[in-house]
Amino acid sequence: VGDVALYRTDRLVARCARTARPVLVPHVSAHDLPRIARDEHAARLLGEAGVHSYLAVPLIARSQVLGTLDLKRARNPVPFGQDDVLLASELAAHAAVSIDNARWYQRQRHAALALQRHLLPQHPPDAPGLDIAYRYQPAGAADETGGDWFDVIPLTGDRTALVVGDVMGSGINAAATMGQLRATARALGRLGLDPATVLTHLDAATADLGEAMATCVYAVYDPHTRLCHIATAGHLPPVHLRAGRPPRLVQLTTAVPLGVGGVPFHTTAFTLDEGDELVLYTDGLVETRDQDIDTRLLTLTDLLAGPHRPIEETCDLLLSALRRPDTHDDVALLIARAHA
Which residues contact 104 (CB under 8 A, 6 or more apart)? Predict the structure, then answer.
């Protein structure tokens, strides 16, 4: 099982695939066995098993032959007939559609992943006053990939913008929308705008895309003042870690997702001292179907309350502890630690 079986072009199964027509041998003779089996050894085994009737039907989807359904009868003394050809052809048609759909979904997944990985930063730039760690993991399902992103944007005056967002929806369309929003956010950030103004313009840009909606959190850190200015658009709250106290969810003014329009965004400022950490993430890290979001956020902060560790290890810890193998959402995770 699982091994590749090679058939020469003169075999009956090859003729079935080549002509896209059923091949029926009601009464198999010793002369027929070499044309049915892939080699002499297999022909001998078929003969010993008492194979006396043979049928092959093509697997066809969208006018393309994907393979063949190869049937041999040994124990049942009744030979294959035209009724069997019709039944096998019907089964093969359903199987071909399922195989074709699976291949299409896999191609879509690969395309969305390739597009998203191309659009996400491969090696974020050095950020003055910050150590950066990040992870991206796609969804487990073939059609659920595509909308999460993160970014690290160098700004003037040694400042750095940290961005995490999540386009609603999935697949290659969500990945393409993500790419447009990420590029827009980078352009707006480099204009020196405060986070709330960036989100206001990003909201308008999202509305211009039609049906698109996204959540986003946008933060700007200044290593000289150690102030972090941050605004959110319907996104889950970041976590602020500081030695000597429990991790806390950053309290931000509630705002609607990007693309809704008509609702103002607000910037909040707090100090990110040396050794402090800021954890930004998308909902795929914490949301599940069997636990409420408050319970999952508490689990997140409990994990972060553990012993001090390198932020790369923290990324791995959060993903291994919170991420479930059957999840239907992708995850973007970005952690920044302030240093001297």
Answer: none
